[in-house]
Amino acid sequence: MSTTLPLFWHLSSAKKKERLDASVKLVVALEHFQSQFVPKDSPETSEDEDEDGDQPKSDGLKHLNAQDVAYSIRRLIRGLASPRESSRIGFAVALTELLSRIDTVTCSQIVLLVLDSSKTQGSMTGQEERDVFFARLFGLTSVIQSSLLLRETTLPSSSTAASDLESYTEVITELLALGEKKSWLRESAWWSIGLAADALAASAVSWKDEAVDATISAIYSETKAWTPEKVALTLKLQAAYPSREWKKLLAPTFKNPDLLSTGNLSTLARILKESDADEDQETDVPKSGSWKPQLHFVWDVLLDQLLSKDGSARASKGTFPEFFRIVVDESLFASTSSPERKYWGFQVFQRALPRVTADDMPMLFTKNFMRSWINHLSNSDRYLHKAARQVVADIQNAVKGDPRIGFSLILQLTGGNGSRQFDKLTKTKTVESILTSMDEEGIQSYIDFLLEQVDDAPSSETADIQALNTRRAWVIEQLASLIRNGAIPKSDAWIQTILDWLAVHGLFIVSKKSEKSAILALRSIPAPAFSEELRKNCRDRLLACLAELTVQTTLVKDESKTAKVAGVASDGRLWVSRLLSTIQQLEKDSKHVHSLSEVDEEEAELRQKAHQILARLKDAPEDQREAAKGIELLLSSTLLHQYCVDEDDADTDALESCIDGASRMFPAEAKKSKKSRKSMGEDKGKEKELPAPIDVLADTVIGFLEKGTAYMRAVANQVFSLLSGAVQESTIDLILTQLERRDPEELMADEDEDVDMDDDEEQEDGEGEDDESSSSSEGNEDDDEEEEGDEEADLELRRKIEEALRVNGISAATGDSDDESEEDLMDDDQMLAIDEQLAAAFRARASEKGHRKGKFSGFMVRCVHAHTSPKDTDAQREATHFKNRVLDLIDIFVKKQSTSPLIIRLILPLVELTVATGPDEKQLADKATGILRSRIGKSKDIPTSVPKDDAAKALEELHTLARKASTPEVLATLNQCSIYLSRVLLHHDASDAVLKAYRESLTDFVSRKASRLNPPFVGDFVKRYPQAAWSIRDDFVEAPGAALNGFRQAQAFHFINTLVNQLQALGDRKSEILEFMPNLRQAILDTLSNACTGESSLTPAHAKEILKLALTSVRQTKRFTATVEEAASIWEPSKWSDLSATLAASDRFKSAVGLQAMCKQIVQLLQESDTAGTKASSKDKAATKRKSEAVAADEEEESTAAPAKRAKHKKARKEKSG
């Protein structure tokens, strides 16, 4: 028994794994003992029974069981009443497994032991009584689960059966009695009875019929009241024994013998809600003392029979929809139900969800359930909000497991019992998450459903048109959201369907159906027709969808490779181009559709030119294919925008600019006639005056950035990314001009000059026409009308100014006014009051004049609006946003064209933006800093060819700004830019400019008191480019002599130390190195000597770092010299001995004995022979050197300590010695 006793302790462990391991070990050991046991022939009193007085002598365990087995059975049964944590579970598992493994015990023996060990006594406390009740429940359940209750075998060498009818009846009776004693035990006790009933139905014992009769009699004759437990057991018994007289047994509570028939559902609902079914009769059945959050096991029995997946459930007169509607929806989710009952209802839904198929899904989303679910889901303060959220999680998991049910779920959430705005109403993303889990087939089914909602005509003539428009608006929003959500699996087919549908209903009117049309929207005519508001909504959503598709990337498979491309379908065509093809097809199909807006001849001609250029771009050469793609996107997007915008907002200037730039960038090939050859020279002269084609396109892109729509901004960024390879110097200047700060008055003056020049040109053109044609009178009339228009505009401007002055109490000056009259001076408040009104008047006049400008008038207007008045916060904010978008273009260019020489031109304007912006434009400064540091400063690529003069000027300007940097952050940015430009110039053999800039900065750092430079600005250059830094080594040596103070002297020597440590990387420069060392020696000696005499503010710590440089330099010198004498001639040991004496005599350094030791170490290095000794002696010398350096360092630290601290240490040592 010594091998099994330790295992009982672990049966009570709180860890499940430990309990199971202990159970396995215990059962295996007991099986081993039992296999070696030889049964006794006659009963004898064992020592075990003598020791255990609680066990009756008639249990008979000792006759057929080993001593350890008998002891273990008794102890396991007694342990069921233990109050220790988890002991009851562990002992019950071990007992069940043991009883199932041995065949030497009878059911009556074990039941007797369980009942004897779980007797209640009057002296027991409430806790002790509960433990005894649980012991009896667990013991009887172990007998049932171990199959001992219905075992057909007999005991070994005996005719005694392992189980009999008497034992079975006793178990059932005890469990029923236990359930009636305590209400909180009833569900568990009846669950165990259900296990016994299932085992009885599956067994083949000889007394099975008697057992069934006994069970039915105990349940229905002795227990009259109906409870959920009795319903569960009835369902099991009806399924197992359908031929019994169930009508008699269920009467009078249920009228139909089939418990799940429709007529019984109302009564069943009251029972399952745990309200009394026999309301007119009093019952003594104990009621539940408190509500339990766990769902009753009867629901699993019900759902197994109603929604059996294997189809084995019996045929019932009732159906699940009726059951769920009456028993769950109208009972648990009734408006009068308590939150506790609704919580049960949510759990029933969660249990039923994985059991139903996609076709049966609507059965679960009933009216009351949806109402309760939405109410509790929409507000986090609701009592069942967490339960409602759990239902959402279960629905999402169900769709992930089976995407085919996603479409059915969405129909229920957005259907009659739900809400089309389900996600918005519940403040969740339930519908959206379901869509992301669906497959392409499900998405297509959902789209078909949405389109059916649009074409579904009202049921009567008096139908609510407003409701229909609301439903159509929701459909439009849902279609757009499918494209907008990047997590939804995309398919070219359904994306094209959505785009075509939005284009048809946004731009055309369907006059006749076309059943065979490839465009799905033409197969039906919506009745009634779409309102103008809905059509505008379609156009807006169409542009929004294209904005999303423009930035989304798609895997495009080519013949040789697969690449991710933005804004295209899987076949490589732009989505915008595909949509334009659909629009062209619809324009030609006048039989079925006609356009909403009429197009004049001029606009039609522009569109035709645009389509011609688009066709021409398909034949672009390979090296210009990317630029052609960008122009195609720009031209197609601009053309589509012309289709979608309102007539009042239509602006053909952008389209004209695109056509102009594209036609000149990709000119058409035409045969040259004599006339054309004559005019060729004139055309070339005109082209020289015109801006470059890429500039025209870039100006259009910049104009897109000013628009407030996401579509225009997305197109602008993508187009510029494709055109970045064709960008020229003038293009960069055009972009950088947008970032400049300009005075509004200057802009207005410049604009007026441009307008005057345009007027002069118009007059000259008019004179030329007078000489060539006879229609001069008409031209004069036009000029007169324009002049009259200008006069009227001037009068209108004057009227507005006079009105603004009059409102603020100031009269306008007239010819009759007295010039000498006293003026009423305005105070500051009055001046501010009229400022906004006058500014608005001037802006209005400026915008009127701006319409008559040339190609680049858009930029001027943008600048005017961006910098009109510092008081106009909205305008200032909009200007900041615009500049942010322009910075996006620069970021794109630097990322795409990292080897372009034009990057050099970007550095200074970005630096100026970083340095000069105010606190209200901090976002701009941060973004510019990010481009400089992340994109340019960390770039591994170098421009292939750079203008050296421009790069040199930029580097010089950077160093000038760095010397006056306002913050360390700005200086760090300038340092990174300086390193980048230095790398570029050094790569292109332009080191003179780099050396000049760093030479001047070094001088500024060491000699100017107000210098803002820091050591890393020069030190980083020395670390990264020692070859270049070596060229200004003399400047580094001379710098300490001109240093302003000891700190800057020490930093100058630190630069030299960095350079000396990298001498090996310089290559074969022996002569230069040996020539440099005497100068360095003299600089060190002079600096330390001056510090000793008080001419310098050098501290002992600084002096230590300088002497470390001297030691390093001596060692480096010895590497490049053949003999010690040669090194000694360079460093002159005698002078270092003199320096040691000078340091010892100095008041400032005499306590720093470590400095003297370092001087002696230098002398020792110069006296050692390189060739003497072996490797071992060299190692000893190296160890000696390291030790001496460490001693010197320690002495230095001690010597530099404060006098007060030294005094304290001396005092402490005296006290210790005393």
TrEMBL record:
Any one Gene Ontology cellular component term annotated for this protein: nucleolus
Name of the protein this chain belongs to: DNA polymerase V
PANTHER family documented for this protein: MYB-BINDING PROTEIN 1A, MYB-BINDING PROTEIN 1A FAMILY MEMBER
Biological source species: Trametes pubescens
SUPFAM superfamilies registered for this protein in UniProt: ARM repeat
Subcellular location: Nucleus
Keywords assigned by UniProt, alphabetized: Nucleus
Entry's family note: Belongs to the MYBBP1A family.
